[in-house]
Amino acid sequence: MLGLFLYFYFMNIETLHKVFLDCNAISTDTRKVAENNMFFALSGDNFNGNTFAKEALKKGAKIAVIDDKDYYLSEKTILVKNSLKTLQALANYHRHYLGVKIIALTGSNGKTTTKELINTVLSQKYNTTATIGNLNNHIGVPLTLLSMTKQTEIGIVEMGANHQKEIEFLCQIAQPDYGYITNFGKAHLEGFGGVEGVIKGKSELYDYLINHDKHIFINADDNIQKDKLNNYIKKYGFSQNDSNYQKIEFLVANPFVAFKIKDTTITSNLIGEYNFTNLCAASTIGLYFNVEMEAIKKAIESYIPTNNRSQIIKKGSNTIILDAYNANPSSMEVALKNFTKQTQSNKIAILGDMFELGNSASEEHQYITDFANSLNIDSIFLIGENFYKSKSNNLKTKQYQSFEEFKANFKPIKSSTLLIKGSRGMALERVLELL
Fold first, then answer.
1. Which of 143, 336, 369, 389 has the fewest CB atoms below 10 angstroms from its CB?
2. DSSP-derived 3-state class of residue 216
3. Does 316 show up as a binding residue in the annotation?
């Protein structure tokens, strides 16, 4: 059952799990540690997590799990060979101890929004536990699994990756029963080695589910997904055209997305036609798990996006589309397309650099620069080292090497509609302070 997670402490994982059950939560950060936590001393490239064990216990942690004998303190300290691998093994053991149904999802764009929508829909009928924020890596996935309890009926686990074999590894930890891939786009090109590498890496979720005869949810209008799963039987999905799948009709996105499913019209609080498939996935998965149509409608219409994702914010006379949580060439392009469909006048796009593009960075930033210039947008501000290097002869476009330079040249904006989008490291939500 534990597969590669038998690791070194196979005989002790069950014992460690019993200790975990007597604690109220896992903590890996002494700034957030609380009374009765189990603290895992995880080390990074530039720090030794074991040095924080004493502080964690002082702040109320019940147990500190360490992997360096020099920091052993008392019977409240558990020494293991590797704290991270022990955390992953414990999560895998706990997942099977609970016997909970696990839905895993990955993709280039829309993972977190889709995860939140699925959780909102399924929680209408089930006790659910979902990934908090975007804790979707080799640490976040174990923490998500370990946050589940005996009351959890369905777990929704977001999986992120920027290299080959990462999704495969996360699947070995979570061992999902169901899976969904939002899309394949130009994200993390540097790590994946191009778009084909992205498709191969994200498809590791398909590979796991197919090899273990599990269920797959599919966007049947995505030709890549459809072709890959053409001969696989255990799939359930949605389509605007294919009658073999749940029929969903796109209605409008001006600015909020509305759609029809099973003769029911649902109007969301999400902007952008690109959110249509995210809404389709949540609705379809809800139907698969026998959530009533009215409950699905209620859930989706009550969902309000947060965390800088497709938020509409009013600031004085300005309307802001804040989509500054992250960006890659695929999501940037669809965001700009959607922006041009807005009916408001005086459209202003404030765009920040897209990260992790490797050797494709120059080409991709030039493409977005040219694409933005070709659209019906009144003013364009490009911020960051890569956008600054792109060539533009358009008088409506201004380029800044840094946010500080943009800030120094910023002039008041009134009665406008603004799109703010860039990679997380650009932190373009700072623009709100200038408005």
1. 389
2. strand
3. no
- Using only C-alpha atoms, the chain has a radius of gyration, in whole angstroms, of 23
Instruction: Kindly give the parts of the chain with pLDDT less than 70.
Output: 1-11, 185-193, 307-308, 343
Q: Is 265 annotated as a binding residue?
A: no
Residue 223 lies in a domain: yes
Whether 107 and 239 map to the same domain: the answer is yes
Amino acid, single-letter form, for residue 334:
V
Per-residue tokens: 327: 């960006």
Q: For residues 327 and 354, give the distance between their C-alpha atoms in angstroms, rounded to a whole number.
A: 6
| Same-domain pairing of 222 and 335 | no
Give the integer Cα–Cα distance in Å for 433 and 435: 5
State the pTM of this model.
Answer: 0.84
Examine residue 86 and state whether it is found in any structural domain, yes or no. no
SS3 236: strand
Is 51 annotated to bind a ligand? Reply is: no
pLDDT attached to residue 278:
96
Return the beta strands (E) in 284-405 as ranges.
311-315, 318-323, 347-352, 379-383, 397-400
Q: In which domain, by residue range, is 245 found?
A: 99-302
Are the beta carbons of 414 and 346 closer than 8 angstroms? no
- CA pair distance 419, 332, nearest whole angstrom: 11
**Residues 45 and 180 reside in one and the same domain:** no
CATH number at residue 43: 3.40.1390.10
Number of domains within the chain: 3
Give the pLDDT confidence score for residue 310 in this predicted structure.
76
Q: What is the pLDDT of residue 44?
A: 82
DSSP assignment, residue 47? B
pLDDT of residue 420: 95
CATH number of the domain to which 189 belongs? 3.40.1190.10
Same domain, 293 and 424: no
- How many residues are given for the chain? 435
Residue 321 belongs to some domain of the structure: yes
Domain-located, residue 420: yes
Is 414 annotated as ligand-binding?
A: no
Is 182 among the annotated ligand-binding positions?
A: no
Pairing of strands 246-253, 256-261: antiparallel
260 and 321 fall within a common domain: no
Is 201 annotated as a binding-site member? no
DSSP string, 28-45: S-TTT--TTEEEE---BT
